[in-house]
């Protein structure tokens, strides 16, 4: 796990400088467009940030597998975030990481998401909304990938609850949680018994 397990969710261009200057090591980029992507990536790379581009949210990015190869070659991103299984497969084919974003809106959606994750095997899974401790625990028990809790998380208590429930990371769009002034309260790791 990262030494700072908060992932910056950049949803607006004005948030980029906060992510660049913040303590976060990873960003999910949902702002900008294909024309501004090169400059955004350069800014984030100067501070050694890991960059995951949400392919359905950044403007001007196509919806087919060839766009993943283009992003990997032209921008040297670390990975993608997507809701689409075919994009996860495309990321594997070009050698970048994938985060599959799933929405737990009801029991049927949870079961469909689990099957999809088991079938396409993304590197990580982002569960939204991230405010459901029981669902986080159940997901974590059923998947092998690191689990990111994201969406609707607004304060320290909600971050702590997500971690206590089994989340490996929390993605959050509030820049106050991206800097050196916030201490994330991590759960105690169980000691190994021999």
TrEMBL record:
GO terms for molecular function: RNA binding. The keyword Transcription applies. It comes from the Bacteria. Keywords: Glycerol metabolism, RNA-binding, Transcription, Transcription regulation. GO terms for biological process: glycerol metabolic process; regulation of DNA-templated transcription. Transmembrane segments: none annotated. PANTHER family: GLYCEROL UPTAKE OPERON ANTITERMINATOR REGULATORY PROTEIN. Regulates expression of the glpD operon. In the presence of glycerol 3-phosphate (G3P) causes antitermination of transcription of glpD at the inverted repeat of the leader region to enhance its transcription. Binds and stabilizes glpD leader mRNA. This is Glycerol uptake operon antiterminator regulatory protein.
């Amino acid at each position: 796990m990262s030494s700072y397990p908060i992932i910056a969710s950049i949803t607006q261009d004005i948030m980029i400088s906060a992510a660049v200057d913040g303590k976060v090591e990873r960003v999910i980029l949902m702002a900008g467009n294909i024309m501004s992507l090169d400059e955004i990536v350069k800014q984030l790379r100067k501070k050694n940030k890991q960059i995951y581009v949400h392919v359905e949210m950044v403007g001007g990015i196509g919806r087919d597998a060839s766009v993943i190869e283009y992003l990997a070659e032209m921008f040297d991103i670390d990975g993608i975030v997507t809701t689409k299984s075919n994009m996860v497969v495309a990321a594997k084919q070009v050698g970048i990481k994938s985060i599959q974003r799933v929405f737990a809106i009801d029991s049927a959606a949870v079961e469909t998401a689990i099957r999809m994750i088991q079938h396409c095997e993304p590197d990580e899974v982002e569960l939204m909304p991230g405010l459901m401790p029981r669902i986080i625990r159940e997901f974590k028990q059923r998947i092998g990938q690191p689990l990111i809790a994201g969406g609707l998380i607004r304060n320290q208590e909600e971050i702590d609850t997500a971690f206590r429930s089994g989340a490996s990371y929390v993605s959050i769009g509030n820049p106050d949680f991206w800097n050196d002034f916030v201490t994330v309260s991590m759960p105690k790791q169980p000691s190994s018994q021999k």
